[in-house]
Automatic annotation (TrEMBL):
This is chorismate mutase. The keyword Isomerase applies. GO terms for molecular function: chorismate mutase activity. PANTHER family: CHORISMATE MUTASE (PTHR38041). One of its GO terms (biological process) is chorismate metabolic process. It comes from Acidithiobacillus ferrivorans.
Length: 99
């Protein structure tokens, strides 16, 4: 992907636009994370380390093809997944503690 900007303002404007898209996608993903808690019996199911590794593999491979830094992609995804796991653990606890 080769995009050329003519000023720092253009760079920042494009980054801001992309950031908005990322936040929109995070919100959508978060709604599914909330729903996932319903289908998991315990906290081990929520943490699902094998699933985490599947996701990492699934995103790092195409990141290279798309011109993204695979190390950055992996670090971002690991952080995002950890945050979503914490949110899902809270959702899971709220569901099972209210019964």
């Amino acid at each position: 992907m080769n995009v050329e900007c003519n000023s720092i303002e253009a760079v920042r404007s494009n980054i801001d636009r992309i950031d908005r898209q990322i936040v929109t996608l995070l919100a959508k993903s978060g709604t599914y994370v909330k729903q996932a808690a319903r289908f998991k019996k315990n906290t081990t199911d929520v943490k699902a380390p094998q699933r985490v590794e599947q996701v990492i593999t699934k995103v790092v491979t195409p990141s290279v093809e798309l011109g993204a830094n695979p190390t950055v992609t992996e670090q971002v995804y690991r952080s995002m997944i950890a945050s979503f796991i914490n949110a899902e653990l809270a959702e899971h606890a709220a569901m099972y503690n209210s019964k």
